[in-house]
Write a structure and sequence with these properties.
Helicase, Ruva Protein, domain 3, elongated, 11 strands, alpha/beta, 2 domains, about 280 residues, 7-stranded mixed beta sheet
Length: about 280
Amino acid sequence: MTAETTVATLIARGARLLAAAGDPMRSSAILDSELLLAHTLGGGRAGLLAHPERAVGAAAAERFLGLLRRRADGEPLAYLTGQREFWSLELAVSAAVLVPRPETELLVERALALLARPAGHVADLGTGSGAIALALASERPQWRILATDVSAAALQIARQNAAALGVSAVEFRQGDWYAALGDERFDLLISNPPYVAAADPALAALRHEPRLALSPGEDAFASLRLLVRGAAQHLHSGGWLLLEHGATQAAQLREELVLAGFGHVRSHTDLAGHERTTEGQR
């Protein structure tokens, strides 16, 4: 590596490295290269692209290439930059939390539709980075929202995000699913629980993310089943349970909700056409 090179040269080199890493990288190789270089240099992507001739010192170039190698190994871009946008909120993320996905915004949309009033008492179970709870708080500042997680490290990230966003209406509490709720009842219970079987080969591509947030073990349906069967004692009459799940789990989840006595059971599709969320009313 020379003492200095240019922005354009580094972006092109990074894109080639990522494209060579395999199919999962090719569609976003140039964009990822640009974003990682912008992160390395401490500026925005637009400013970077406006000056492709800008010289980059050897030390910064080496830091950039180090990030590229980690990205080529499958590490999520959000972990490398430390940030992820969700519901137009800029969230801090780390390897302690699942990277928020665009399809999870469907949970937020459905929650706002189901509880379309200024006041409400809501629990976000397994909050991770706090993405769902903070998105809801940004839309319904008068709601009382409890966000729980079994992971102390995840809750630290969630609290950090709440502080950065100036959100004080969300209470964070550590505990495993309903154990964190005590005898409280809510208008809405919402969760994006782990729903991938431990033996599912898809987990290999997600190896950098916390396994606890992805898989409940050999039984992919275990957490979803637990949430359905324990919901009634934590919901007011007429309250809703709203869950994200795998693309092939909707029918089983609807059956489980009906057997548990829920009404108005229905599923909703994400932008890819997959049934991604299912809801039921107590």
